[in-house]
From TrEMBL:
<feature type="transmembrane region" description="Helical">
    <location>
        <begin position="249"/>
        <end position="269"/>
    </location>
</feature>
<feature type="compositionally biased region" description="Pro residues">
    <location>
        <begin position="18"/>
        <end position="27"/>
    </location>
</feature>
<feature type="transmembrane region" description="Helical">
    <location>
        <begin position="275"/>
        <end position="293"/>
    </location>
</feature>
<feature type="transmembrane region" description="Helical">
    <location>
        <begin position="207"/>
        <end position="228"/>
    </location>
</feature>
<feature type="transmembrane region" description="Helical">
    <location>
        <begin position="139"/>
        <end position="160"/>
    </location>
</feature>
<feature type="transmembrane region" description="Helical">
    <location>
        <begin position="98"/>
        <end position="119"/>
    </location>
</feature>
<keyword id="KW-0812">Transmembrane</keyword>
<dbReference type="InterPro" id="IPR010380">
    <property type="entry name" value="DUF975"/>
</dbReference>
<protein>
    <recommendedName>
        <fullName>Integral membrane protein</fullName>
    </recommendedName>
</protein>
<keyword id="KW-0472">Membrane</keyword>
<keyword id="KW-1133">Transmembrane helix</keyword>
<feature type="compositionally biased region" description="Low complexity">
    <location>
        <begin position="47"/>
        <end position="74"/>
    </location>
</feature>
<feature type="transmembrane region" description="Helical">
    <location>
        <begin position="181"/>
        <end position="201"/>
    </location>
</feature>
<feature type="region of interest" description="Disordered">
    <location>
        <begin position="1"/>
        <end position="74"/>
    </location>
</feature>
Length: 303
Protein backbone atom coordinates (compact mmCIF):
# COMPACT_ATOMS: atom_id res chain seq x y z
CA UNK A 1 0.00 0.00 0.00
CA UNK A 2 1.44 3.33 -0.99
CA UNK A 3 1.45 6.33 1.25
CA UNK A 4 -0.63 9.36 0.38
CA UNK A 5 1.24 11.53 -2.12
CA UNK A 6 3.54 8.75 -3.37
CA UNK A 7 3.96 8.47 -7.07
CA UNK A 8 2.85 5.21 -8.68
CA UNK A 9 5.64 3.21 -10.25
CA UNK A 10 4.22 3.56 -13.75
CA UNK A 11 3.95 7.33 -13.64
CA UNK A 12 6.70 9.83 -14.17
CA UNK A 13 6.94 12.46 -11.45
CA UNK A 14 5.90 15.84 -12.61
CA UNK A 15 8.11 18.85 -12.02
CA UNK A 16 7.00 21.05 -9.15
CA UNK A 17 5.31 24.26 -10.16
CA UNK A 18 7.80 26.95 -11.11
CA UNK A 19 10.76 24.51 -11.37
CA UNK A 20 12.56 24.04 -14.70
CA UNK A 21 12.42 20.61 -16.34
CA UNK A 22 15.24 18.18 -15.71
CA UNK A 23 18.03 17.68 -18.18
CA UNK A 24 20.57 20.03 -19.72
CA UNK A 25 19.31 23.46 -20.67
CA UNK A 26 18.76 24.13 -24.32
CA UNK A 27 21.22 26.31 -26.17
CA UNK A 28 20.28 29.94 -26.76
CA UNK A 29 19.20 30.79 -30.24
CA UNK A 30 22.49 32.40 -31.21
CA UNK A 31 22.59 34.56 -34.27
CA UNK A 32 18.83 35.02 -34.36
CA UNK A 33 17.41 38.49 -33.93
CA UNK A 34 15.77 38.87 -30.58
CA UNK A 35 17.84 36.16 -28.81
CA UNK A 36 18.07 38.21 -25.65
CA UNK A 37 17.51 41.75 -26.94
CA UNK A 38 14.73 43.63 -28.72
CA UNK A 39 14.60 42.79 -32.41
CA UNK A 40 14.04 46.30 -33.73
CA UNK A 41 13.57 45.15 -37.30
CA UNK A 42 11.08 42.35 -36.65
CA UNK A 43 7.41 43.32 -36.34
CA UNK A 44 6.68 39.86 -34.88
CA UNK A 45 8.41 40.85 -31.65
CA UNK A 46 5.38 42.89 -30.66
CA UNK A 47 2.77 40.23 -31.48
CA UNK A 48 0.83 38.48 -28.70
CA UNK A 49 2.30 35.13 -27.68
CA UNK A 50 5.89 36.18 -28.17
CA UNK A 51 8.33 36.89 -25.40
CA UNK A 52 8.51 40.62 -24.67
CA UNK A 53 11.62 42.01 -26.33
CA UNK A 54 12.71 38.65 -27.73
CA UNK A 55 10.89 38.49 -31.06
CA UNK A 56 10.80 34.67 -30.91
CA UNK A 57 8.01 32.33 -29.77
CA UNK A 58 8.30 30.66 -26.41
CA UNK A 59 10.79 27.84 -26.37
CA UNK A 60 13.24 29.32 -28.86
CA UNK A 61 15.00 31.75 -26.54
CA UNK A 62 14.27 30.73 -22.92
CA UNK A 63 14.55 33.23 -20.14
CA UNK A 64 17.65 32.90 -18.01
CA UNK A 65 19.99 32.06 -20.89
CA UNK A 66 22.24 34.89 -21.96
CA UNK A 67 23.18 35.28 -25.63
CA UNK A 68 26.49 36.59 -26.87
CA UNK A 69 27.05 40.24 -26.07
CA UNK A 70 24.55 40.47 -23.20
CA UNK A 71 24.94 40.68 -19.45
CA UNK A 72 22.30 39.43 -16.99
CA UNK A 73 19.29 41.69 -17.22
CA UNK A 74 19.67 42.23 -20.96
CA UNK A 75 22.28 45.00 -20.65
CA UNK A 76 24.52 45.16 -23.69
CA UNK A 77 28.23 44.47 -23.21
CA UNK A 78 29.09 46.49 -26.32
CA UNK A 79 32.05 48.83 -25.96
CA UNK A 80 33.66 51.25 -28.39
CA UNK A 81 37.09 49.77 -27.80
CA UNK A 82 35.89 46.25 -28.59
CA UNK A 83 34.17 47.46 -31.75
CA UNK A 84 37.27 49.14 -33.18
CA UNK A 85 39.53 46.30 -32.06
CA UNK A 86 37.24 43.88 -33.88
CA UNK A 87 37.09 46.15 -36.92
CA UNK A 88 40.88 46.39 -37.20
CA UNK A 89 41.37 42.65 -36.68
CA UNK A 90 38.86 41.76 -39.39
CA UNK A 91 40.27 44.45 -41.69
CA UNK A 92 43.66 42.74 -41.50
CA UNK A 93 42.08 39.34 -42.12
CA UNK A 94 40.21 40.61 -45.22
CA UNK A 95 42.75 43.14 -46.41
CA UNK A 96 42.54 42.46 -50.15
CA UNK A 97 38.81 42.84 -50.88
CA UNK A 98 38.38 45.76 -48.47
CA UNK A 99 41.33 47.74 -49.85
CA UNK A 100 40.11 47.11 -53.41
CA UNK A 101 36.62 48.33 -52.51
CA UNK A 102 38.02 51.49 -50.88
CA UNK A 103 40.31 52.13 -53.87
CA UNK A 104 37.39 51.70 -56.26
CA UNK A 105 35.42 54.23 -54.21
CA UNK A 106 38.22 56.81 -54.44
CA UNK A 107 38.85 56.09 -58.13
CA UNK A 108 35.18 56.47 -59.11
CA UNK A 109 34.82 59.75 -57.23
CA UNK A 110 38.06 61.08 -58.75
CA UNK A 111 37.04 60.14 -62.30
CA UNK A 112 33.63 61.77 -61.91
CA UNK A 113 35.21 64.95 -60.56
CA UNK A 114 37.69 65.09 -63.46
CA UNK A 115 34.89 64.59 -65.98
CA UNK A 116 32.85 67.28 -64.28
CA UNK A 117 35.79 69.69 -64.49
CA UNK A 118 36.40 68.94 -68.18
CA UNK A 119 32.79 68.92 -69.33
CA UNK A 120 31.61 71.71 -67.05
CA UNK A 121 34.75 73.78 -67.21
CA UNK A 122 35.27 73.49 -63.47
CA UNK A 123 32.49 75.98 -62.89
CA UNK A 124 34.75 78.85 -63.95
CA UNK A 125 33.02 81.99 -65.22
CA UNK A 126 34.78 84.97 -66.79
CA UNK A 127 33.18 88.44 -66.74
CA UNK A 128 34.37 91.01 -69.29
CA UNK A 129 33.60 94.73 -69.41
CA UNK A 130 32.65 95.89 -72.91
CA UNK A 131 33.48 99.29 -74.40
CA UNK A 132 29.85 100.35 -74.21
CA UNK A 133 29.80 99.73 -70.47
CA UNK A 134 27.97 96.42 -70.59
CA UNK A 135 29.34 93.20 -69.15
CA UNK A 136 29.60 89.79 -70.81
CA UNK A 137 30.04 86.53 -68.88
CA UNK A 138 31.49 83.36 -70.41
CA UNK A 139 31.89 79.92 -68.85
CA UNK A 140 34.43 77.29 -69.74
CA UNK A 141 33.95 73.63 -70.50
CA UNK A 142 31.99 71.70 -73.08
CA UNK A 143 28.68 72.54 -71.42
CA UNK A 144 29.74 76.00 -70.38
CA UNK A 145 29.75 75.19 -66.66
CA UNK A 146 25.98 74.92 -66.74
CA UNK A 147 23.81 73.96 -63.81
CA UNK A 148 22.68 70.90 -65.78
CA UNK A 149 26.26 69.59 -65.89
CA UNK A 150 26.72 70.13 -62.17
CA UNK A 151 23.48 68.36 -61.35
CA UNK A 152 24.27 65.46 -63.67
CA UNK A 153 27.68 64.76 -62.23
CA UNK A 154 26.44 65.39 -58.71
CA UNK A 155 23.78 62.70 -59.11
CA UNK A 156 26.29 60.37 -60.78
CA UNK A 157 28.73 60.79 -57.92
CA UNK A 158 25.98 60.22 -55.36
CA UNK A 159 24.86 56.97 -56.98
CA UNK A 160 28.41 55.65 -57.36
CA UNK A 161 29.32 56.38 -53.75
CA UNK A 162 26.03 54.89 -52.55
CA UNK A 163 26.61 51.64 -54.43
CA UNK A 164 30.14 51.20 -53.12
CA UNK A 165 29.12 52.18 -49.58
CA UNK A 166 26.31 49.60 -49.61
CA UNK A 167 28.74 46.97 -50.88
CA UNK A 168 31.20 47.67 -48.06
CA UNK A 169 28.35 47.54 -45.50
CA UNK A 170 27.22 44.19 -46.95
CA UNK A 171 30.78 42.87 -46.74
CA UNK A 172 31.10 44.01 -43.12
CA UNK A 173 27.84 42.27 -42.19
CA UNK A 174 29.07 39.08 -43.86
CA UNK A 175 32.31 39.28 -41.88
CA UNK A 176 30.42 39.45 -38.57
CA UNK A 177 28.68 36.21 -39.55
CA UNK A 178 31.95 34.45 -40.35
CA UNK A 179 31.39 34.36 -44.11
CA UNK A 180 34.23 34.47 -46.61
CA UNK A 181 34.56 37.91 -48.17
CA UNK A 182 35.03 38.65 -51.86
CA UNK A 183 34.25 41.51 -54.21
CA UNK A 184 31.45 39.47 -55.78
CA UNK A 185 29.66 38.65 -52.52
CA UNK A 186 29.87 42.25 -51.33
CA UNK A 187 27.35 43.36 -53.95
CA UNK A 188 25.02 40.34 -54.00
CA UNK A 189 21.67 40.17 -52.23
CA UNK A 190 21.17 43.92 -51.78
CA UNK A 191 17.77 45.49 -52.32
CA UNK A 192 19.06 48.45 -54.30
CA UNK A 193 15.66 50.08 -54.68
CA UNK A 194 15.18 50.33 -50.92
CA UNK A 195 18.79 51.45 -50.44
CA UNK A 196 18.23 54.27 -52.93
CA UNK A 197 14.88 55.30 -51.42
CA UNK A 198 16.31 55.39 -47.90
CA UNK A 199 19.38 57.32 -49.02
CA UNK A 200 17.28 59.95 -50.78
CA UNK A 201 15.02 60.35 -47.74
CA UNK A 202 18.00 60.71 -45.42
CA UNK A 203 19.82 63.08 -47.77
CA UNK A 204 16.84 65.43 -47.91
CA UNK A 205 16.21 65.20 -44.16
CA UNK A 206 19.89 65.81 -43.37
CA UNK A 207 20.14 68.84 -45.68
CA UNK A 208 17.00 70.37 -44.18
CA UNK A 209 18.32 69.66 -40.70
CA UNK A 210 21.70 71.23 -41.43
CA UNK A 211 20.00 74.35 -42.74
CA UNK A 212 18.03 74.53 -39.48
CA UNK A 213 20.97 75.45 -37.24
CA UNK A 214 23.05 72.33 -38.11
CA UNK A 215 22.12 70.35 -34.98
CA UNK A 216 18.91 68.82 -36.42
CA UNK A 217 20.93 67.54 -39.37
CA UNK A 218 23.47 65.93 -37.07
CA UNK A 219 20.59 64.39 -35.11
CA UNK A 220 19.23 62.83 -38.32
CA UNK A 221 22.64 61.35 -39.12
CA UNK A 222 22.90 60.03 -35.56
CA UNK A 223 19.55 58.22 -35.23
CA UNK A 224 19.67 56.76 -38.76
CA UNK A 225 23.22 55.41 -38.47
CA UNK A 226 22.14 51.77 -38.90
CA UNK A 227 19.59 52.23 -41.69
CA UNK A 228 21.61 50.49 -44.41
CA UNK A 229 22.39 47.62 -42.06
CA UNK A 230 18.70 46.99 -41.43
CA UNK A 231 17.87 47.13 -45.16
CA UNK A 232 20.71 44.83 -46.21
CA UNK A 233 20.64 42.43 -43.25
CA UNK A 234 16.90 42.26 -42.46
CA UNK A 235 15.59 43.17 -45.93
CA UNK A 236 13.36 45.87 -44.46
CA UNK A 237 11.68 48.56 -46.57
CA UNK A 238 13.34 51.97 -46.40
CA UNK A 239 10.94 53.64 -43.97
CA UNK A 240 10.84 50.65 -41.61
CA UNK A 241 14.64 50.45 -41.68
CA UNK A 242 14.89 54.12 -40.70
CA UNK A 243 12.44 53.53 -37.85
CA UNK A 244 14.31 50.41 -36.69
CA UNK A 245 17.60 52.31 -36.67
CA UNK A 246 16.08 55.13 -34.65
CA UNK A 247 14.69 52.68 -32.07
CA UNK A 248 18.00 50.86 -31.72
CA UNK A 249 19.99 54.08 -31.40
CA UNK A 250 17.64 55.70 -28.90
CA UNK A 251 17.60 52.54 -26.77
CA UNK A 252 21.41 52.83 -26.52
CA UNK A 253 21.77 56.59 -27.00
CA UNK A 254 24.73 57.25 -24.72
CA UNK A 255 26.82 54.34 -26.00
CA UNK A 256 26.02 55.01 -29.65
CA UNK A 257 26.83 58.72 -29.25
CA UNK A 258 30.34 57.90 -27.99
CA UNK A 259 30.74 55.39 -30.81
CA UNK A 260 29.46 57.92 -33.36
CA UNK A 261 32.03 60.50 -32.23
CA UNK A 262 34.79 57.88 -32.33
CA UNK A 263 33.87 57.05 -35.95
CA UNK A 264 34.08 60.74 -36.90
CA UNK A 265 37.47 60.97 -35.18
CA UNK A 266 38.73 57.93 -37.11
CA UNK A 267 37.63 59.46 -40.41
CA UNK A 268 39.26 62.77 -39.49
CA UNK A 269 42.57 61.12 -38.64
CA UNK A 270 42.44 59.13 -41.86
CA UNK A 271 41.74 62.27 -43.88
CA UNK A 272 44.61 64.33 -42.46
CA UNK A 273 47.08 61.53 -43.28
CA UNK A 274 47.10 62.70 -46.90
CA UNK A 275 43.86 60.82 -47.45
CA UNK A 276 45.74 57.50 -47.50
CA UNK A 277 44.59 56.81 -43.98
CA UNK A 278 41.00 56.62 -45.24
CA UNK A 279 41.90 53.35 -46.99
CA UNK A 280 42.17 51.92 -43.49
CA UNK A 281 39.70 54.11 -41.64
CA UNK A 282 36.69 53.44 -43.91
CA UNK A 283 36.77 49.61 -43.75
CA UNK A 284 37.64 49.56 -40.04
CA UNK A 285 34.80 51.95 -39.15
CA UNK A 286 32.23 50.10 -41.29
CA UNK A 287 33.17 46.74 -39.73
CA UNK A 288 33.00 48.33 -36.28
CA UNK A 289 29.52 49.62 -37.15
CA UNK A 290 28.44 46.12 -38.19
CA UNK A 291 29.79 44.82 -34.87
CA UNK A 292 27.83 47.50 -33.00
CA UNK A 293 24.68 46.77 -35.00
CA UNK A 294 24.73 43.10 -34.08
CA UNK A 295 26.00 43.36 -30.51
CA UNK A 296 23.51 46.03 -29.48
CA UNK A 297 20.74 43.64 -30.56
CA UNK A 298 22.25 40.71 -28.67
CA UNK A 299 23.21 38.87 -31.85
CA UNK A 300 26.30 36.70 -32.06
CA UNK A 301 29.37 38.08 -33.81
CA UNK A 302 31.79 35.66 -35.44
CA UNK A 303 35.17 35.58 -33.70
Amino acid sequence: MSNYGDTPDDETPKDPYGQPPSGPPSEPNYGQPGAGAPNYGDPASSQPGNQPGYGQPYGQAPYGQQPYGQQPGGVSTFSVGDAFSYGFKKFQANLGPLIIAALVLFAVVAVIQVLQYIVGGGGETTIELNDDGTMTSTSGGMLGGSIVASLFFGVLSFLAQLAIQAGIVKGALDITQGQRLSIGTMFNGINWVQVLIASLILAVATIIGLVLCILPGLAVMFVTAFTLQFIIDKDLPAVQAIQASAKLVMANAGTVLVFFLACLAAYFVGAILCGIGLLVAIPVVVIAQAYAYRTLQGEQVAA
